[in-house]
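step=encode ok
step=design start
structure_in=
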């Protein structure tokens, strides 16, 4: 365990600790302790604790005793699970305090303040081929929104295909990576990032409106409880998706979709299209109705509101 991690865990008990005592326990100087505290504890935090998460999961009827990994730092929780996939069971999960190479859509870097946000991935095995998994991220988005509302947030919305919004600001996102043969089986690693608290320096790197739990709720995020809720909801959703596909989640996604029924601009591979969002089809494509009355379906692209 690094000095940084050990310091955070010593301070997590809420008791008084002098800089001298902390330095003696960690084998560093008092000045080093003060520097670390200024750098990492500008905002109260709750370190991830595998035992607490496992207990909360067990209370929810799920046991992941040998299938939950909590790391201090990893380049990507998705990549970690992919690299260890051969030895992992379906439902295995990985969380990390810091993820310097985390990715969002289109290869963009996922920006997160270490020890303050939630970055996790879950591995799942499907019997069928990748073609049967269309719309998986939409169903997973519903699971994330449901978990956030179970946590206590209200008015959580979704943006096709894989963003989680609050008050039209990005609160989280999903990234699925798929490995499999045409006829199956298929391995999926689903990554989820949720903004717990973003420092001013990290927030300045984000080029779109954003939200975090600390500012929404006025309290530091209870990350272990939220992690357990996300894992519980994701597991239940992936189990049902394996049996029934996207259909049970389509209408819920549409109800939560921030752009449903609105005039939008869709930027796609061959240009851009303006139309009103009609819904999601059985394959997870977004359906737009253009001004000419034509209905067009898109499986990829970027949508934004279009002024009428």
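sequence_out=
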């Amino acid at each position: 365990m690094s000095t940084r991690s050990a310091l955070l865990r010593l301070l997590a008990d809420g008791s008084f600790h002098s800089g001298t005592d902390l330095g003696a326990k960690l084998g560093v100087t008092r000045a080093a302790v003060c520097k670390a505290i200024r750098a990492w504890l500008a905002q109260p935090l709750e370190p991830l604790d595998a035992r607490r998460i496992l207990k909360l999961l067990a209370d929810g009827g799920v046991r992941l005793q040998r299938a939950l990994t909590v790391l201090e730092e990893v380049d990507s929780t998705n990549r970690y699970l992919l690299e260890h996939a051969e030895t992992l069971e379906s439902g295995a999960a990985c969380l990390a305090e810091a993820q310097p190479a985390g990715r969002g859509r289109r290869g963009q870097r996922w920006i997160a303040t270490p020890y303050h946000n939630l970055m996790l991935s879950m591995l799942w095995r499907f019997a069928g081929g990748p073609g049967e998994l269309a719309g998986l991220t939409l169903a997973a988005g519903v699971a994330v929104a449901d978990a956030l509302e179970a946590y206590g947030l209200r008015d959580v919305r979704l943006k096709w295909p894989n963003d989680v919004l609050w008050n039209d600001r990005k609160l989280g996102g999903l990234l699925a990576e798929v490995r499999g043969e045409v006829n199956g089986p298929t391995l999926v690693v689903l990554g989820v990032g949720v903004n717990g608290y973003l420092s001013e320096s990290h927030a300045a790197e984000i080029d779109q409106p954003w939200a975090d739990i600390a500012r929404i709720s006025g309290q530091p995020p209870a990350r272990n409880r939220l992690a357990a809720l996300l894992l519980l909801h994701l597991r239940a959703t992936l189990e049902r998706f394996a049996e029934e596909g996207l259909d049970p989640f389509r209408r819920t996604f549409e109800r939560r979709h921030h752009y449903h029924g609105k005039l939008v601009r869709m930027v796609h591979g061959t240009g851009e299209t303006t139309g009103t969002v009609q819904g999601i089809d059985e394959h997870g494509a977004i359906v737009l109705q253009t001004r000419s009355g034509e209905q067009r379906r898109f499986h990829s692209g970027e949508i934004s509101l279009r002024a009428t």
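step=design ok
step=annotate ok -> The chain has a mean pLDDT of 90.
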